[in-house]
């Protein structure tokens, strides 16, 4: 099988598996226990926190470990949103191309907690204009949330510029960095962010673990209360093996990213050139250059993505039509429609996301097979 769906998830790196191994049956203590076994788990947890903090250029105490990227986004929006509401701030600013972890949480705050949500426009490439963010700020704005890189079209947003604007106005700024984690700088000072969400399974770590960076001084109400773990910001016994794995995974991804990004961009360009030369009536979605290195997203006229994905699967290629959760659902993507594609065009979306184990030979195989598949589906 050729795996071209790295934006959906990635294989766990064997070095990550090794790092996690001691924490299942051997060093299985609860990090809150005071005896040796517990202390060993607590030491591993704090070591992981320190390693992650070094990658993010923040203090270890600013890292909150969570159960996934979705939870991190929820904690950012609800936690900061509700803390803001307590001080009379009930306005959120976000974009129409966010993951549903952000959009549905914002909608929930609007429906049940009287928030007003400003959804900013994006351009045809999916870029958010920083000046438009500035213009949307109000005295009662509680939080700005703009994703770092889009999962469906790969566009990378000008986070540092937006962060500078948010800072000027003293408004907390959250970025969903789930898709960026394996490829882009996560330095929270350079990015000028107050909150940043990550999910380990997008960068060769395990599924079901994530983190939220919370800048010191940011008012955040916990959404999950209990034993006071994670400095009272996220109760629940910490998932030590997964957290250790996530720390190793983010270190490995960040250490190798410059070289790997160059390799992935070259593979993506080869794939794009091959497909554009051989398939008529296709368009790139997302930004041509400000995009994730291995991310190629296309809109293919006259085909339905579902048929395309099934035919690709039969040819041994795993791909998707957009976000993993949207695949198989008959509604057009909210991201593509926000970029100005018609619902009909959006139904022909194909996302090919390359990653660490992909090769030129695999790219060439897809260049060879996809044109025939598209021609066959168009003839039907
Ligand atoms: N945010 C973005 C941009 C994503 O692409 C995803 C997953 O696809 C998530 C959030 C949710 O992350 P998780 O799968 O860890 O809940």
Q: Any overview of this molecule?
A:
With 380 residues, the chain is of the alpha/beta class. The chain has 13 helices and 12 strands. Strands 2-8-7-6-5-3-4 form a 7-stranded mixed β-sheet, sandwiched between helices. A 3-stranded antiparallel β-sheet has the order 9-10-12. It has a two-stranded parallel ribbon with strand order 1-11. The model has no long low-confidence stretch (mean pLDDT 96). Bound molecules: pyridoxal-5'-phosphate. Pyridoxal-5'-phosphate binds next to helix 4.
Labels describing this entry:
three-stranded antiparallel beta sheet; 380 residues; globular; seven-stranded mixed beta sheet; 13 helices; binds pyridoxal-5'-phosphate; alpha/beta
Bound small molecules, by name, code or SMILES, are: pyridoxal-5'-phosphate
Low-pLDDT segments: none
In spatial order, strands of the major sheet run 2-8-7-6-5-3-4
Shape: globular
Number of DSSP strands? Answer: 12
Order of helices and strands: EHHHEHEHEHEHEHEEHEEHEHHEH
The proportion of residues forming helix, as a percent range, comes to 40-55%
Nearest-angstrom radius of gyration?
Answer: 21 Å
Question: Mean of residue pLDDT?
Answer: 96
Number of helices: 13
Distance between the termini: 26 Å
Structure classification: alpha/beta
**Biggest sheet layout:** 7 strands, mixed
Q: For this entry, what is the oligomeric state of its chains? A: single chain
β content, as a range? Answer: 5-15%
